[in-house]
Predict the structure.
Amino acid sequence: MVTARIAGTGAGLPPSYSQDMLWSTFFRSHFNGSPIARRIFDGAGVASRHSATDPRKFEVVPEWSTGLRMRRYGEQAPRLGLRAVQEALAEAGTEPGEIGMLAVASCTGYGTPGVDVELARSLPLSPDARRLLVGHTGCHAAVPTLAAASDYVRANGRPAVVLCLELTSLHLQPATSEVDQMVAHSLFGDAAAALVLRPDDAPAPGLRVVDVAARTDTGRRGQMTWDVTDLGFRMGLSPEVPDALGEQIGPMVKDLLVRHGLDLSDVRGWAVHPGGPRILDAVQEGLGLDPEALSTSRAVLAEHGNCSSATVLLVLRAMLGAGEPSGPVVAAAFGPGLTLYAALLEPAPPT
């Protein structure tokens, strides 16, 4: 039976800036020295973040139109995406011409022809390669994109690439005293992250995509939003989100594991989207995990911030970089809807 195996991962990261520098150089004046904003920045669990625009030079201003921000995305995004995909292909030992599908997820920039077409040209991909764009889905987009690419690999026996690319820094919003905007501006960073899926019907290194589960709580659909405005995209974030996710994560993950005769105690790795420290605390409590179980997610949050859809792939990349887990891995991410997704990944059985 053909399976879809994660054979390589890669990242394209713009320059990194410390959280303290971002506060002192830009956000302190942006939020008019608000002590509330300062406490939020200090408690965000972020030590540094990547930004495709230099905050010290005020390269993006709140008054920029959405059209101008999209043009900037079109200039910056392709080269970061190319870097991530090339790194993943090299790790997977795969040539661009072998790729049968390129699936790109992004909720921070659009244009047609877009990043997918630019990558098809610059890699280059085979003319018959399929392209899938998953747009404006939010932080959980990596998992449904992974699911679609995995289905393609299983059905067609050709490799696929998943790319999540987010430039959240382009969506700096006008100064405000709204706490949810302070929280959003304290967390988000820019990143491109990619993985290569290869078809395999024999044991080989790499995690196989076994199954994917989803859960949407439409009654709480207004708790997390990502609105297109005349001044970029604006996040809405209710303080009730962590509690909502904490309630839903346990039943979803347990159902996913039970389908394959597994229990929470069988899981050897947790790649959880680090939406923020309260999100991780809620997931830890909702699943009854030891604090160490989410250490990789917390480390990625500290080093990179919340990079929207790219973040869970960065967590997987860091986890695999430390050595392939000895057993099942659950990757989980969350976004507007209120939507939760989880993927069950397993190493190949020993030969």
About this structure: The first helix runs from residue 19 to 30.
